[in-house]
Amino acid sequence: GQNIDQPTEMTATEGAIVQINCTYQTSGFNGLFWYQQHAGEAPTFLSYNVLDGLEEKGRFSSFLSRSKGYSYLLLKELQMKDSASYLCAALNSNYQLIWGAGTKLIIKP
Amino acid sequence: GAVVSQHPSWVICKSGTSVKIECRSLDFQATTMFWYRQFPKQSLMLMATSNEGSKATYEQGVEKDKFLINHASLTLSTLTVTSAHPEDSSFYICSARGLHEYNEQFFGPGTRLTVL
User: Fold this and answer.
1) What is the tens place of the pLDDT at every residue in B38-66?
2) CA distance A44 to chain B (A)
């Protein structure tokens, strides 16, 4: 079967760094996405990885290891507005997005 | 980035009525559009995938006669919830994918449906 695993909830402190992990199993692989979703809003795109390695984009970075079926999203210098759910999604060989259940990130002052 | 709009943003209707939700790609041609449903504190659930000019492909457990999808043009897809019931109350989100290098899906802002 196809599935995505990511932690249900994480808590971090304002100004700190947090890493959200995601493991995936899909039929074929065409890349991995991270989306941010604030409560009551639609998801917004954060990153896309298809090659192994780290992609840095400002305070957010995303890492992929295809051999391990593993990705993480790294958030630095956390701000209160980063409190949201972070969704990991893998694109399979049919170009279907397989979604994780999301990780709710709580930022404390 | 590409922009996707949804209309209406929210709707309240009586049980038994039908509700139509529109999804438009504003600045690109969407070869494929997706309809998702999200219940409170749950992840996105894909309902169906539609390609312009062809019938939608529904996910298992989604009633195609209840959730009618029309993708008549490269910029517009509609979802009609027929004979809505309170259990259909949810956040409905569409996304669109064009011919982009990332195969990225661009999400609309969502439609909150409340059925009384």
Assistant:
1) 988 788 889 999 988 888 999 999 999 99
2) 7
